[in-house]
Amino acid sequence: MTGPATRGKHKRNRQGDNVNITSEILRKIHATGEITNEDVDQLYMIWKPVCKGCRVNTKDNPNCFCGLIPPPNGSRKSGLWQKVSDIVHALGPDPCKDLRAAESPAGLTNLGATCYANSILQFLYMNRSFREGVFSVEPDVLKQQPVLDQLARLFAQLHASKMAFIDSAPFIKTLELDNGAQQDSHEFLTLLLSLLEGCLSHSKVPKARTIVQDLFRGNVSHVTKCLKCGRDSEASSKMEAFYELELNVKGLKTLEESLDEYLSVEELQGDNQYFCESCKTRVDAIRSIKLRTLPDVLNIQLKRCVFLPKTTTKKKITSAFCFPGELNMQQRLSEPSQMNWIYDLSAVLIHKGTAVNSGHYIARIKDESTAQWWEFDDEQVSNLGHHPFGEGSSAAKIVHKEPVCLDIAEGMDAVRPQSSESVVSSYGERFSSSDAYMLMYKRRHTSENDERRPMVHAADHFAAEVNERFSNDGFPLPAYVFENIKEFNASYLDACKEYKLKKENEMNQVMERREEVRSILSEAPVQSAEAPFYWISLDWLRMWADTTTPSVLDNTPIQCSHGKVPVSKVGSIKRLSAEAWTKLFSKYGGGPALSNADYCIACLTDNAKYVVSADSYRDRRTLMRDLASSVLSGNCPGGTYYISKTWLQQWVRRKSFDAPSDADTGPTASIRCPHGQLMPEQATGAKRLLVPENLWLFFYEDAITVKPDDSFNCTTFPSDSEQCPQCSNELSEVACLEDSLRAVKLKQRQSHEKLAMGKNIPVTLNCKYYLVPSSWLTKWRNYVNASGKNISSSVEPDALDFVIDSLKCEKHLRLLERPPGLVYKRGVLFQKGSAVSIIAVGI
What is the reported pTM? Predict the structure, then answer.
């Protein structure tokens, strides 16, 4: 049992069937001279039903409008029906995607490997006091200090820009940093603070001039105490400034342990004894570091990079390290103080990766005004809530009687009691990380002036100009910097507005066009045979259905020279209802309008005449092919005209056509000499045959029909035509020359048979030999061994006199190459095989 024929519903007629029917109708028209409505319906395929199931548009059915638009849920790669996302993408980048979110700090662009600088810059900007100090610098000083000027501009953009991230290139370029080289963030901070300290020293504003020292500088002393006399060394009274504490991590688990190790007492004994100036001898002593003063912002560098002496390389320590959210430094000072020395964790610099000289830096920084933590990862800025590692962690504020450590950076929230003999009451939240590289603690102030003030980003409100120039702390931005940012924001917001309007207009236009196309195509099919209709160009209809902005309606490509629709354009036209045509014509204009009565009678009559003529030509050509085949096989004696044998062979192999073509020209071109006479048959390509007169006349008519103005196209050569005497003489001379050349080569081969064949020649005593380059010998062999058609085209080698001179150097006239060696084999001497380019030849 066979299955149902599911594809037979819309099965097309074979192309050959349509051609046969069309030919029959045209023959009838030629015979009767009458054209009926049924003939027109059949020739223009008006009779075909409206197609509703084709996947592609059918050219042989003018009533088929399928495939002009995709299915309801379909799309195309280009044009009106492409995906909405592709249409939006073609509009260009959306500037609104870079719009800064409300209350969110801005990021910084990574220029290649500048994440280390971005993290430090964000840390400095988020420090309110440092930011105020930079903004308070006089404009004249900023103009004289390029680094400070660019830093002020960068801070102002981070504060007031509407964009979600700021281009850090001007500042990085001013510092002359290599964008592609990763650097250490700790080293960068140290060098930057030192550079800014020098730049700010030119300011006359007290707050700005010493802002670096006031915020980041503390003092330590390296104390050495003699255990014999109890006195400190003279150097112990000297204080050294520090901008960060560099603490060891290797073998230590907590920040308290690292601080204990940093401030621990070292005993100087044995070979390491100390020379006491008071005792005038080497004595036992103790040495330690004393914290004299602490800064408002305590930067702690965790020394995760250690040097390996065996491999002379550096390695990163990736062990977990625990640090508190609140750090009490009260009892770590060398002298008691009544001030409050409790620090709150304000920033954590993270280094991701296991390698020392690569990886990626990110910063997690606490906003002083809102207590919100933010993660700064170059351009990306994320809100972490009130926790430096994100609100998702279960490490909410947990207070214990003893220190606790929470593993959250690595995804572990287990609470582990920590023990430390010298820890100083640091209770509360504690954090653990294997990637923390720098810790920043800010001293807690309790005075009324230091109370939190609500943070207001200028980027969130630009309504009143009086408030625009003030930072989030109420401190005015530099005027000339503010004006630049104001202009930039206005330009950026205009670009966002322009893009939104452009996108809205584009989508509205696309949707309106799609609805128009669907509507008109639904009305396009002609519903009855009697209904009036119009012909429309398929090419224009395709363009109109797939273009957002169609051009003027153009029907001229489907017109014949009589201004009508010829039957030859059936595959390029569609039959459109009067309603659909009226809508298209009224909106797009153009034309011309070609109605159902505008079929071309003149073209139909000419086509009918051509079909009958083509039938006659095909029949006649078939008879001539049979006759030509007999000529080629030698079964047709009594020929009267010469034609090219090669041309005739190619003509027989060609398919039959309805009319002569370019291939039918030149049946005697290859046997006609330059003097216009019959080429001697000995010439190359001049082979010829005699054909009967009727066959020659058929060839002649075709050639003249295709090229009537070419007098040399088909020269007639009767059987009694004589060969060109001049060409015959020239061929005779060439033949004589070749015979003479052939004799010379034969003589050389016979005289030097073994040499010509490439065989090894035995060397005998008392015989004179000459050295000849092997390359010349190869050319000579090719020359004397050439035969047949190659005998006249082979290149004669150069004269030996010139070639032999090339074997000797010009200065000393001695050989440039070593002569070939000799080998004794079977009682005979032979030349030894060698890569030397010369060979011995006996004369």
Answer: 0.62
